[in-house]
UniProtKB/TrEMBL annotation:
Gene3D superfamilies: Aspartate Aminotransferase, domain 1, Type I PLP-dependent aspartate aminotransferase-like (Major domain)
UniProt cross-references to InterPro entries, sorted A to Z: Aminotrans_V_dom, Cys_dSase_SufS, PyrdxlP-dep_Trfase, PyrdxlP-dep_Trfase_major, PyrdxlP-dep_Trfase_small
Family to which this protein belongs: Belongs to the class-V pyridoxal-phosphate-dependent aminotransferase family. Csd subfamily.
UniProt domain Aminotransferase class V: residue ranges: 25-409
SUPFAM superfamilies: PLP-dependent transferases
Protein name, per record: cysteine desulfurase
Keyword field: Pyridoxal phosphate, Transferase
Transferase found in the keyword field: yes
Domain of life, per lineage: Bacteria
Alphabetized CDD domains for the sequence: SufS_like
Reactions performed catalytically: (sulfur carrier)-H + L-cysteine = (sulfur carrier)-SH + L-alanine
A Pfam family of this chain: Aminotran_5
Coiled-coil intervals: none
Amino acid sequence: MPFDVDVVRKDFPILAREVHGVPLVYLDSANTSQKPQVVLDTLSEFYANHNANVARAVHTLGSEATNAFERARDKVAAFINAPNRDEVVFTKNSSEALNLVAYCLSNATTTPGAERFRVGPGDEIVVTEMEHHSNIVPWQLLAQRTGATFRWLPIDTDGNSAGRLVDTAIDEVITERTKVVAFVHQSNALGTINPVARIVARARQVGALTVVDASQSAPHLPLDVQALGADFVAFTGHKLYGPTGVGVLWGRYELLAELPPFLGGGEMIETVDMTGTTFAAPPHRFEAGTPMIAQAVGLGAAIDYVSALGMTEIAAREHQLVEHALAGLATVDGLRIIGPATSLDRGATISFTIKGVHPHDVAQLLDEDGIAVRAGHHCARPVCVRYGIPATTRASFGVYTTTDEIDALVRGVDRVKAMFS
């Protein structure tokens, strides 16, 4: 049975507050999600009763902290259907996870035994035009460091394919020269859910590694890394109803075992001599120094929470919210949806513009009604360039979003338009 959103909302204490004297309507979950009480309690309980460093002490607190941290790894592995818990690497966010892969590939240029990962002149790195900056800039930097060529799959802006990748470009841009294809599962700016199987199949055909940014899909869709078929998958905790400061990189174990490390320091080593160092096996090879212990434990609690609701149920309900929102926003004259115009292969994020009104003005006036949305290019400026616009207003939903809140958004947008008319 679908979960009861009224019951769910009681789990999120921040939703009870007011903004500017009116009830908060939080429609910015793509930016960061709110946290259920169980996550807040888990963080507090860990710091109050179990705080210690992990994998470094045999005393009781050290053992308790280590066990809690590693249980969180088990929860992540189960949540994404990873075949091996040691394929789960904790990072501080998606940006670090994506940079980790890019810098490991860069380090492979001078590491014996890592020839298969070497990128250099004549090789190509492919992303898409709808990427978050976190999945553009690391690959641009890798291309600059290695002499590789940086390419991208374009966005279609016309007709029924608007907001989606140009399908023919997948075969045209991903070629035998491609070494890496990095792409977003669900766009944070457009809401588009990309054809992962199609892109991965083409990349595998030419022998390229695939890196999927699942930051926006992990909170909203069942995430099965085995079904996705990619080589690496990244996502972040703070969008998944967990704490800030924790993210995840999943990678195939055989690849992680051959990659050189990203950062050097404690815990990522096997032996250290003044003449050289050997490195620990994954995942610890990529977790130098004291990790984000409490945050990982909090992420485990968030995963327990959404798993109890059911990711399939979450996806189905949010699909209904998207349909409701698209229908409501369609009644506003002069409003343009930036992205797919239908709910097909579309996530719970909707960006739009209003003719004659700057998106920042829309967001500021909505805030006066207690409605929290985001305005800007959403760290995906190439999307705005592609559409020929400076920015968009973006509404994004979570497990706590109601149709009443979406109706309030539509009314608020109507008021904004009337003011500027």
